Amino acid sequence: MNLLSRVARIWEYRGVMWILVKRDLRVRYARSVLGYLWTLIDPLAMTLVYWFVFDKIYGMKSETRSEGIPFVLFMVAGILAWNWFNMSVNETARALYAERLLVRSTNLPREMWVIRVVLSKGIEHLMSLPILIVFTTWFWAHGQVHLNIKLLLWIPALILELILCIGVGLVMAPVTALIDDFVRVVRIVLRMGFYFTPIVYSLQFLEEKRSSLHWLARVLEFNPLTAINDLYRQGMLTRATPDYHIWLIGLVVSLAWLVFGMWIFAKLEKPILKEI
């Protein structure tokens, strides 16, 4: 079965997909006292910790590292995007093994067990966006940030991250099902990946304030989350010309992950069924 046929079959079962997504969300909040509030508490706590460490302890003010945006607002945009990616990768890595009985016994496209994780985490990401909206509104009302029509770029940022998370997830799930130690490798890489993603600093900071790290800024352009974070922040920036080449690189790399993920999943599907 070629890749287009597999995509068509996934689309054919989209109704079942949404049932699985809703099931995941119900299970997540079923026994939680605070429920939805955890979706807000987790990224808010992360933001406050990093703000205290970098801004208050190290005294790295916003103008030197966040392109003129208040440091807290700059971090919120990056942390929310990172959380969706981080949770998607961690949970898709176990998606097939966790649902192994259903994966083996149903005729559903097996990619759906991965995609449904990304979609459920994407909905949680949308539910956490009020944090970004509140921070943005607060700083705008106090004249510390000027908003523009480029806030609409949040929409392509969401689409681009959805593509990226599905692509990476389709690689993580089959490899982890075959090599259990791969989960530990992924966790280590994700911890490193947080600091190699422009969340608590900008590429401009690396280029202008840390000239010795100019090469690192060029490398980080190939991290698709760099483009995604930039899209989220565009509506707040005063930068005259957006870095369109970073967006293009982010799009190409994300699509490459999606195609590669579909291909590797198809190649490993039969070995997976024997293993789980």
Spans with pLDDT under 50 lasting ≥5 residues?
A: none
Mean pLDDT: 86
What is the alpha-carbon Rg in Å? 20 Å
Number of strands: 0
Helix content: over 70%
The percentage of residues in β strands lies in: under 5%
- The total number of structural domains is 1
Name the shape in a single word: globular
Distance between the termini: 22 Å
The profile of the biggest β sheet is:
none
Taken in chain order, the helices and strands follow as HHHHHHHHHHHHHH
Going by helix content, strand content and strand pairing, the class is mainly alpha
Number of helices: 14
Protein name: Transport permease protein
InterPro entries: ABC2_TM, ABC2_TM_bact-type
GO molecular function, one term: ABC-type transporter activity
Main location: membrane
Explain this structure.
- This protein is mainly alpha-helical and 276 residues long.
- It has one domain (3-275).
- The protein is built from 14 helices and no strands.
- The longest helix is centred in the last third of the chain and has 32 residues, at 244-275.
- The mean pLDDT is 86.
- It is found in: Cell inner membrane; Cell membrane.
- One of its GO terms (biological process) is lipopolysaccharide transport.
- Keywords: Cell inner membrane, Cell membrane, Membrane, Transmembrane, Transmembrane helix, Transport.
Overview features:
mainly alpha
Characterize this entry briefly:
It is a multi-pass membrane protein. By secondary structure, the chain is mainly α. It has helices spanning 3-12, 14-30, 37-57, 62-65, 71-92, 95-98, 100-105, 112-141, 154-178, 182-195, 203-208, 214-220, 224-233, 244-275.
